[in-house]
Specification:
GlcNAc_PI_deacetylase-related, 9 strands, single chain, PIG-L family deacetylase, alpha/beta, zinc, globular, Rossmann fold, LmbE-like_dom_sf
């Protein structure tokens, strides 16, 4: 059963976290209340992924007092348009860009893993790294790229994006909550715990059932994206595209970002199927 949010911004009473996935248009305050958000962990394959997909929502949540931590799987060393710049210099530059973008939307910390840009695979080793970060942070909700390909806009379904989404979903269930998975983490004091919510961005249109009203935070998203100056051949066109996308997602006069909300564990979740 899905919990339905009103399509009129701020109206209606959304169902609580004991129900199914939330649908419709949500105010950030509703998201905080309904999902019990105090701390969130966001995953991305490359610097700028989360800024394209979820940074206005993150800005709204941090304004509500939610702590948000970002984990990048790669440094993005294969990105950009300057053939004279080495991969090492690109990695250094993009890490700096992401730190600056994170500060714009209130992200407290950026964790960088060591996956190779363009070659991310959802294998045992990467899932273990993600489980480690999840158990260290112990978030109430996890943001991640979606694991399914979006044929309506293939650019958001980069292979690294899909691999990131798949690895995060596998980590969220069952690995992070299984004390027998990655026993070395359990022995190191990183105890198993249950992820409650996944908020997957970059989702295929048919799965993006939750829209978050980010009106008033759209400029922070644009400013954060602007920090990734090495990635934009035409910054003005990027701004126009992202702004139009947020307006279209809202469906009214405001701005919104969309997600596939998955309830991993709720009070009535049982083991098995």
């Amino acid at each position: 059963m899905s919990g339905t949010l009103s399509d009129a911004a701020g109206a209606g009473t959304p169902s609580g976290p004991s129900g199914g996935a939330l649908t419709g248009l949500a105010q950030p305050q509703q998201l905080v209340h309904q999902l019990g958000l105090r701390r969130a962990l966001a995953f991305a394959a490359h610097p700028d992924d989360v800024d394209f997909g979820a940074s206005a929502t993150i800005a709204a949540l941090t304004a509500e007092g939610v702590e948000v931590i970002l984990c990048l799987l790669t440094s993005g060393d294969a990105g950009g348009f300057d053939p004279s710049r080495s991969p090492q210099e690109t990695a250094r530059l993009r890490a700096q860009e992401q730190q600056e973008a994170a500060a714009v939307v209130g992200i407290n910390e950026v964790i960088l893993l060591d996956e190779r840009d363009g070659f991310v695979e959802p294998n045992y080793e990467l899932i273990g790294k993600i489980v480690r970060v999840m158990r260290q942070v112990r978030p109430d909700a996890v943001f991640s790229l979606h694991p399914e390909r979006a044929w309506d806009r293939l650019q958001k379904a980069h292979p690294d994006h899909l691999a990131c989404g798949e690895a995060v979903v596998r980590a969220a269930y069952p690995a992070v909550e299984n004390p027998f998975a990655y026993p070395e983490l359990q022995e190191a004091g990183l105890k198993a715990f249950k992820i409650k919510h996944l908020l997957l961005y970059g989702a295929p249109a048919q799965h993006a059932q939750l829209r978050v009203d980010v009106s008033g935070y759209q400029e922070q998203k644009i400013q954060a994206l602007g920090r990734h100056f090495s990635q934009h051949r035409d910054a003005q066109r990027m701004v126009e595209f992202v702004t139009a996308q947020m307006r279209s997602t809202h469906g009214g006069e405001g701005f919104a970002e969309d997600f596939h909300h998955v309830v991993v564990n709720s009070p009535d979740t049982i083991s098995g199927f």
